UniProtKB/TrEMBL annotation:
Classification lineage: Eukaryota, Metazoa, Ecdysozoa, Arthropoda, Hexapoda
GO cellular component: cytosol; oxoglutarate dehydrogenase complex
Gene3D superfamilies: 3.40.50.12470
Cofactor(s) recorded in Swiss-Prot or TrEMBL: thiamine diphosphate
Protein family according to the UniProt entry: Belongs to the alpha-ketoglutarate dehydrogenase family.
Designated name of the protein: Transketolase-like pyrimidine-binding domain-containing protein
Keyword terms: Oxidoreductase, Thiamine pyrophosphate
One of the record's GO molecular function terms: oxoglutarate dehydrogenase (succinyl-transferring) activity
Taxonomy, superkingdom: Eukaryota
Domain (Transketolase-like pyrimidine-binding) ranges: 1-128
GO BP field: tricarboxylic acid cycle
Keyword Oxidoreductase on entry: yes
Amino acid sequence: SLLSEEAVLAFEYGYATTLPKSLIIWEAQFGDFANCAQVVIDQFIASGETKWERVCGLTMLLPHGYEGQGPEHSSARLERFLQLCAEDNMQVITPTTPAQIFHALRRQSIRPIRKPLIVMSPKSLLRHKLATSTLDELAYGTFQTVIDEIDTVNKEEVTRLILCGGKVYYDLLEKRRELGLNHIAIVRVEQLYPYPVDVLNAVIATYPNIKDLVWTQEEPQNQGAWLFIAPRLYKEILPLGKSIQIHFAGRDASAAPACGSPYLHAKQQAQLVHRALDIQVDETGDRH
């Protein structure tokens, strides 16, 4: 298509509203390029149904993930979409497996309602050795808004529960397995909006002895899902009357989405994984 994100996305929005029984997908080369179509997102995709009762089932595939490619090729500005979420106006997901993406697109095509679907889809998961699905998961599975711990852990012994979304999950999983940290469980929130409050609460309730609940993301603290999910976690956890501490693990707040240095990127990524897993390291990088 023409290299004019605003024009092309506006065309796809109109096409999707005109043909509601079709699966219309607009994919950005990098999620950051949606910046150039922000007016279409704000004035049509997010609010068109509320303003004009005009439903739209447009799907946006936005490559999003911190892979060391710099500030203009790392972030689809997840925080902007979450800020626009209200009145069940759209769906925002961060799928981590092929089956999840397949079932999300299938659901979008066959369900009897039409809502925009925003997919944060990291490019590196196309080739990640752990990002796989079985044929049974594809043939007989469904889209899961929340995915519980996949390794065999004794939930009674888990004292630290990590919540996350997107490709950072695999960094956490590999490091947790490497160090044998069996007191830590990792839960994926695959759908951020509509917020799966009942499903997530049910999963958290299966871990009766957690002391720390950690939201982990690759994005800086002022970006990503943290400012969206933090008040929801406090709202649900505090009334339980348990001494559970809620923590953030991610990059420090930043004016830019990402740094431009591969070395600094790798250092920041390691630091946020260590923070999430509560691994103490010295300046040489040795664990102690």
